[in-house]
Request: fold
Amino acid sequence: MSTTTEPAAPPTDGTTRSTTGSTAGSTADASTDPSLATPPRLSLRTWADRAAAGLPAGVRGPAVDPRGLRTGVVHLGLGAFTRAHQAVCTEDAAAATGDDRWGVHGVTQRSARVAEQLAPQDGLYGVLMLGQDGAGAETASLRVVGSLREVSFPGRDTARVLAALAAPTTHVVTLTVTEKGYRRRPDGTPDVTDPDLAADLAALVDELDAPASRPLDDAPAARSPLGMLLRGLARSRRADAGPLTVVSCDNLSDNGHVLGGLVHAALTSPPVAGRAGADALAAWVATHVRFPSTMVDRIVPATTPAHRNRAAALLGLRDEGLVVAEPFLQWVVEDDFAGPRPAWEQAGATLTHDVAPYERAKLRVLNASHSALAYAGALRGHATIAEAVADPDLHALVRALVDEDVLPTLVAPDGMDLPAYRDEVLARFANPATGHTTVQVGMDGSQKLPQRLLGTVADRLAAGAVPAASAAVLAAWVRWVRATSAGTAVVAGRAVPLDDPLAPVLAEALTGPEEGLADRVLGLRQVVPPALAGDDRLRDALRAALAALPDRR
Ligand SMILES: NC(=O)c1ccc[n+]([C@@H]2O[C@H](COP(=O)([O-])OP(=O)(O)OC[C@H]3O[C@@H](n4cnc5c(N)ncnc54)[C@H](O)[C@@H]3O)[C@@H](O)[C@H]2O)c1
Ligand SMILES: O=P(O)(O)OC[C@@H](O)[C@@H](O)[C@H](O)[C@H](O)CO
Reply:
């Protein structure tokens, strides 16, 4: 298995002095002028000035000149993760090959915030890498990334996004829109009752019905990732723009095939199926579009003001688009592309014909342990994953989860040493530098646990074993839902509310008397598949786990 650990970078200048593009003002440098309260904003111009003045150790610039990149990738879901993962690999691939076709057009989803952070910076942002050296001392380095060449917000820029999706120069669409962003029902079909997806499907039908001569520039704002993608595919077909590959980079089991299935189902069922052009679009997608699966791995916590201050001290520039990451980075991509792609394998990615064993190992070992530490840790008041994994009881819980429940369900990919992988994951969790919080990892449990935990549970039950540690993790989630719903969850001195798209359903089902609680958990049909809901062994194990972990008051 090929993984990358980004080195603390030598100081290099990847850019040349720019005279265009920046809305940032002064080029004065706060790191040398203490009279300046705030350093100037990162942009092509200020970065070039900074680099020309000499960069401190541990700071490096874009691997390619951003101004020379054309847009070939559209990314839906411009959150923190893609900026620290795919955008980095895409830039490194361009640097390794000299291929300038792979600038990225990043599209935010629900808010304009990230677009507004990045536009004044000409798309530049830093990745602050926080790790530990062999002696446990904290290491920090910063890399400015330049592969993000355009940013859009659908609420304002839908016509621009649809045009980008349908441009003949766009060969790849990537996504990181969270588990809930897929609007997927438990049976795998798209939730067409979701108001955002329904609005997009109505717009799609209208656009499919429109005569070819009708300009589509006044198209209503796209409201869901799936709807935006479908509308972009319709435009792409209409423009005869050539083949397209859509790469899901979310923590979903079988992510590419899940997304391809949602696209197919949306085009072949009401309200779209049967409309003029729908069948032709479905046939065009089947021929011209691929949906490879991927396994993505890098711990990227939400950026805090403290991170920004730290980066500003290193860089001498203020970076509102900063992201934070551990040094580790891994990407395994199914080699199933409809057309050209960045040479990601030259940036450390593994291109393979079978991603499933990698994806399964990562979701079941890393992500399931992460969720275990998040719920059990937050219940004990641990603010960070690093604090939680240092708690001997929780360390033991994770070891039991992985050793007794997860590892027997895995086939090691590519000769991988699974116990060594477990140990490496636990060591990464123990890195306190990133400050990844239990509350962040614990959000959206209803969407995450089916991906991370319930597959293990199903496999162990099928093998005749009772997954007691998995039941303990499920119990910790239930206690967390009850505490956050009741307003009694306090972490780092702050009350934490329930953050989950199914919050009302969860609060209704999981609060109330202890009597029958395990039945109510297993009766959550949006979370627990029917085959598990009726399993008495799981019910008994969950009852025992709930009895061992009373409500926190
Ligand atoms: N952060 C990590 O460590 C990490 C690592 C591996 C994979 N991932 C994957 O990337 C995803 C995003 O992580 P991030 O760190 O960028 O998070 P983030 O909060 O920074 O960004 C989330 C993105 O998803 C969009 N989004 C959120 N809810 C949505 C919804 N209901 N509908 C449509 N779009 C929605 C947001 O607008 C934003 O663009 C994760 O959910 C996971 O699947 C993250
Ligand atoms: O990003 P999420 O919200 O799906 O999950 C939270 C974490 O478990 C996750 O982001 C991990 O840090 C990541 O999957 C590591 O690669």
Remarks:
- Residues 64-125+148-309+324-352 form a domain with the Rossmann fold fold (CATH 3.40.50.720).
- The longest strand covers residues 125-132.
- Confidence is low (pLDDT under 50) at residues 7-36.
